[in-house]
Structures are given as structure tokens and as C-alpha cells.
Write a structure and sequence with these properties.
It is a single chain. This protein is an alpha/beta fold and 268 residues long. It has one domain: Alpha/Beta hydrolase fold, catalytic domain (Rossmann fold), CATH 3.40.50. 35% of the residues lie in helices and 19% in strands. It has 10 helices and 8 strands. An 8-stranded mixed sheet has the order 1-2-4-3-5-6-7-8, with helices on both faces. β1 and β2 form a beta hairpin. α1 crosses α10 and α2 crosses α3. The longest helix has 17 residues.
Amino acid sequence: MTRRRAYADTPFGQVHYAEEGAGTAIVMLHQAPRSLDEFAEVQRELVPEFRTIAVDMPGFGASYHVPAPQTIESMSRGVIALLDSLNIENAVLLGHHTGAAVALDVAATEPERVGVLALSSMPWLGPERRARDHSVGLDIVERREDGSHLMKLWSLRQPHYPAGRPDLLDRFMHDALVPGLDPAEGHRACDRYVMEERIGLVRCPTLVLTGGADPFAAPAVPHILDGLTGAACVEQVTIDTAMIPAMEQRPETVAHHVREFVNRVRAR
């Protein structure tokens, strides 16, 4: 089976996804403001063993538009509606950065639908995050007639991407410049999310993947591990050189850890 793109009809609008493989479903949720393209390499690594479904989350890529203010909860509802549309009763969820927060909310909202949760470089969205200055940060740029905001958008991301890989920044820019998309709005959705009230509702086995060279990931790990009080089991793995684009930078390693964790859970 080759990678197939399609649209799923939901009560909120159409959700765009790319599917490949067969077996246990792994639903992949990207960081903001990316798209399902973020998982192209990880899908290829997992296809021999799993049914992989990479999703343009609601509000991103070619999925239905979500007006500001966006919320993690609205994205989560859209993902649950996608599972309904595809008749997926139980899935593995793999989320990266913002997508990890959405995956967590799906698992907290409908625990019976999520067999395994893989949280990659998930930020800790507690009161400290909500109290910070939200006028500055990643992907916050003001559009300018001379196009200089494009260079600023690139330069804000560049320190967090591996040297010698402008192709990865090209892919980021492609997704960030989708018409009508504010590249920072997904981060603001994270700013609004009260994670400390939701994380304890997760019941399934959970893998916490951490990018060792991702400055947003490592500080969050202690809070995440402390918060997963209801999970059946929790494992934490650090991928030493992984930066913000871990899914594209280290796809073989990401896929290895997800595959091994799912197989260990199955064997119990």
C-alpha cells in the first residue's frame, strides 16, 4: 500500500490525512504550525508493522479552518471526530510538541480510545506558561509589505534546527505560510491550556520522548512525569541530538522507540 492522502468528513469540517500500512493504527499529530508532512519519514519507518495515519490537525495544513482564539480542546475534538469518521475504536497516538498536548487531551477525554500514548517533546503547559509574556516568542512576526517578516520567521526557527539542513526549514516555511494561518496561534492555544487539570486523567501506557537538543523539551520532563499519575505505566527516553524537527531529523530513532514501546505494551 502506498501513502494515500484523503479527507475525512467530520461534524466540524473536513480533516486532511495521509495513510499508509496496515495493522494497529498509529495516529500522528504535528507541532504548530506544521502539517502532516512532519511525519513523512516516520511513517515510512513504521509502515511495515502499523497502519500509520498522519493528520493535518484542525486549523492547519489542508484541514478545516479554526478561527482564533484556537484551543487545544477544539483540536482534540477534531481528532476524536476523525477517529469516528475512520471507524477507529482504539489507536496509538504519537504527538510532537503542540500535537503532543492535543494527543494528551484526546487520551484524557476518551481514555478508551487510546491504547498507547507517545508524547514527543511535549511542553509543560502549567501556570508558569500562562503567566509569561505572550507578546514575544517562537513564530511571532508582524507581516510587512517588504516581506522582511519572512526572514524573521526563518531566523526565529533557525537556532533550533540542525546545521546544514535548510531543507527542513523550507518545509517549515511551506506550512507556516498556508493562506489564512497565523503561525503563532497554535502556540497561543498552548498558552491557554490548563494541562495540570488534564494530565492526571490519562490512563494508558505512556512514552515520553525528549529531544536532548530541544531547549523547550527537557525542562518540561519532570513536570510531565509527575503529572502522569493515572497512566498504566510511563517510560521516558531522551534522543540525544534531537532538536525541534525531531520527526524529520531522527525518524529512525523516533520510530524505533515508538515501535519497541508499543510491542512491550502488547506483550504484557
